[in-house]
Amino acid sequence: MAVAPPMTMQGGATGLQQQQQAVLPRSSYLGLQLASQPCVKVGCGRRSSAGLRCQVSPSSTTLPHFNVDISGAGKPIRSVERSTIRLALPSKGRMAEDTLGLMKDCQLSVRKLNPRQYIADISELKNVEVWFQRASDVVRKLKTGDVDMGIVGYDMLREYGEDDEDLIIIHDALGFGQCHLAIGIPTYGIFENINSLSELAAMPLWTEDRPLRVVTGYTYLGTKFLEEHGFKHVQLSTADGALEAAPAMGTADAILDLVSSGTTLRENNLKEISGGAVLSSQGVFVANKKALLERKEMLDVAHEMLERFEAHLTAQGQFTVVANMRGDSAEEVADRILNDTSYPGLQGPTVSPVYTNKDGKTEVDYYAIIICVPKPQLYQAVRQLRKAGGSGVLVSPLTYIFDEETPRYRQLLAALEA
């Protein structure tokens, strides 16, 4: 790969500006290139796109007595040990809204007195500070230990976490932000009959002088994915938004971006291809593994949050159905439910006597049965109960289903011991 040209600053670069310019080295990463301006951060040492690292020229020295780390990738510098537990949440966008919605549904409402605040608390979780951060910074600060736990999209965790073993997923399916990261190519021109990733890689057009140009915000994942699938000549570039316009403008051949419904791709004459999906993503609950191991109080908070999330998510779409049924005994009614209907409940029906006053005497003519039914099967369940002799059927949505112990917590403990 040719060395990236130095960035030209408006009005020319002189003095310290020239010293702070850096260039990207020739890639040894299977011919994958980065088409972007060089990193101009003093002493950054950060990973650049396509898995490369920015190299600071010898002349770009830091100021005396200052240790400058603009990238946020360095180790944290703390003057004192903190006793609080820091939870990082997305600060903007749909992911932020959905995260706060989940917290509220789990009785963990985030209390922020001023909308401009970036620090908040949760009354139900003592000693926990909430820090609102950009999604990428949530992951970066988890890596450095500046925050202990966080909620972020799985795509961001993989891109900025770079498979760091010190990041551990506590809950991998929070139920919002569902999408997938995928390659998109034009539906016209030389790509009209290209319908798979292997066909795209095999196109003879791609050479060292004319690589496949891919615009993306996911340079780490993009590099890794394309390398694993046999691409030899690829040029990755970054953009702040509107990636779908790049192929039509002639600045890229393909894009690598998040896809939800696919409508945006179609409206820009782009298409997905077979084998072109990098990963599926949704909101995940993540923690710094070292912090979990060293601080029991943090593990306790993680356990409580996990139980609340799991109880709420398990109950979503579930309904409690209560009906009265005549029967000779609770066992006889239970037998009817188990054998004459398709809805036995979670472990089985709850059956209890319904007491009535008949001529001054307390008698049992009915038994109340309680079962749990998924929403799509709700009406069918009611019909079956009535056919089995049920009446006075009551239906109400479930808010939480707490198990004896959430399997995810057992998995977390096993992962910490590994």
Automatic annotation (TrEMBL):
<dbReference type="InterPro" id="IPR015867">
    <property type="entry name" value="N-reg_PII/ATP_PRibTrfase_C"/>
</dbReference>
<dbReference type="InterPro" id="IPR013820">
    <property type="entry name" value="ATP_PRibTrfase_cat"/>
</dbReference>
<protein>
    <recommendedName>
        <fullName>ATP phosphoribosyltransferase</fullName>
        <ecNumber>2.4.2.17</ecNumber>
    </recommendedName>
</protein>
<comment type="function">
    <text>Catalyzes the condensation of ATP and 5-phosphoribose 1-diphosphate to form N'-(5'-phosphoribosyl)-ATP (PR-ATP).</text>
</comment>
<dbReference type="GO" id="GO:0000105">
    <property type="term" value="P:L-histidine biosynthetic process"/>
</dbReference>
<dbReference type="GO" id="GO:0009507">
    <property type="term" value="C:chloroplast"/>
</dbReference>
<feature type="domain" description="Histidine biosynthesis HisG C-terminal">
    <location>
        <begin position="315"/>
        <end position="399"/>
    </location>
</feature>
<keyword id="KW-0808">Transferase</keyword>
<keyword id="KW-0368">Histidine biosynthesis</keyword>
<comment type="pathway">
    <text>Amino-acid biosynthesis; L-histidine biosynthesis; L-histidine from 5-phospho-alpha-D-ribose 1-diphosphate: step 1/9.</text>
</comment>
<feature type="domain" description="ATP phosphoribosyltransferase catalytic">
    <location>
        <begin position="134"/>
        <end position="304"/>
    </location>
</feature>
<dbReference type="InterPro" id="IPR013115">
    <property type="entry name" value="HisG_C"/>
</dbReference>
<keyword id="KW-0934">Plastid</keyword>
<dbReference type="InterPro" id="IPR001348">
    <property type="entry name" value="ATP_PRibTrfase_HisG"/>
</dbReference>
<dbReference type="Pfam" id="PF01634">
    <property type="entry name" value="HisG"/>
</dbReference>
<keyword id="KW-0028">Amino-acid biosynthesis</keyword>
<comment type="similarity">
    <text>Belongs to the ATP phosphoribosyltransferase family. Long subfamily.</text>
</comment>
<dbReference type="InterPro" id="IPR020621">
    <property type="entry name" value="ATP-PRT_HisG_long"/>
</dbReference>
<dbReference type="GO" id="GO:0003879">
    <property type="term" value="F:ATP phosphoribosyltransferase activity"/>
</dbReference>
<keyword id="KW-0150">Chloroplast</keyword>
<keyword id="KW-0328">Glycosyltransferase</keyword>
<dbReference type="InterPro" id="IPR011322">
    <property type="entry name" value="N-reg_PII-like_a/b"/>
</dbReference>
<dbReference type="Pfam" id="PF08029">
    <property type="entry name" value="HisG_C"/>
</dbReference>
<dbReference type="InterPro" id="IPR018198">
    <property type="entry name" value="ATP_PRibTrfase_CS"/>
</dbReference>
<keyword id="KW-0809">Transit peptide</keyword>
<dbReference type="GO" id="GO:0000287">
    <property type="term" value="F:magnesium ion binding"/>
</dbReference>
